[in-house]
Design brief:
Elements lengths: L1 E5 L4 H10 L3 E5 L10 H10 L5 E6 L4 H9 L5 E4 L5 H10 L4 E6 L5 H9 L5 E5 L21 E3 L8 H8 L3 E4 L4 E2 L2 E2 L1 H18 L1
Parallel strand pairs: 1-2, 1-8, 2-3, 3-4, 4-5, 5-6, 6-7, 7-8
Antiparallel strand pairs: 9-10
């Protein structure tokens, strides 16, 4: 099971993940987010990141050119779309750059089932099932996850205390954590360590 820690913005955040080895991290490029990082800051942080950990860029209705530029400069290794991007936009993105694309789906909205069907039928690589627009710290009703064909990341309100139970219940491809491993709005090394430890224990139970 993949582990992704999202919303890294400081050198000490990178040091924390380097020491605990999740599979992926996320840089948020949405200017309205309190976890926003500039492309230059993200590049500096990426250069500090262990080469065995992949970096995702999180975007909300960003231009195609800006996303492609960050991929080509190797600031990010995956693209995560969190806005109202269309299937056609995703197809253009995949044509322009050869990296995995993740599409977030809000599982609390009225159209979540239609969204799931639409993206399941597309060429997107992964889905990310979340509460609202992401980073809310709230879990959604896992009973809403019925038939999902694409491999998906589970997000929304995951903490070191509940992530193992959620993973055992839902069996996602991966888990994505952000606010649940923070203290006072900053990434907490001990919480990251505990979350990674508990998920690795779940992996041993599933095998």
């Amino acid at each position: 099971m993949k582990i992704k820690i999202c919303g890294l913005s400081r050198p000490e955040d990178i040091d924390a993940v380097n020491g605990n080895r999740p599979d992926m991290i996320g840089f948020v490029f949405a200017p309205k987010s309190r976890r926003y990082v500039s492309p230059q800051t993200a590049l500096e942080l990426k250069n500090r990141l262990d080469q065995g950990i992949r970096a995702a860029g999180v975007f909300v209705d960003e231009t195609l050119e800006n996303i492609v530029d960050l991929v080509q400069k190797q600031v990010i290794d995956l693209v995560q779309l969190h806005g109202s991007e269309s299937v056609a936009f995703m197809e253009k993105l995949k044509y322009r750059c050869d990296v995995p694309v993740v599409k977030a789906v809000s599982m609390t909205g009225d159209r979540f089932s239609q969204e799931l069907r639409m993206w399941d039928a597309s060429r997107v690589d992964f889905l990310l099932l979340d509460s609202g627009a992401g980073g809310t710290g709230q879990q959604f009703d896992y009973g809403r996850i019925t038939r999902v064909e694409k491999p998906f990341f589970l997000a929304g309100g995951l903490t070191p205390e509940n992530v193992a139970e959620a993973a055992l219940k839902v069996h996602p491809y991966g888990v994505d954590m952000s606010s649940g491993v923070e203290t006072d709005g900053k990434k907490d090394r001990k919480k990251i360590e505990e979350a990674v430890r508990r998920i690795r224990n779940v992996e041993r139970k599933i095998r």
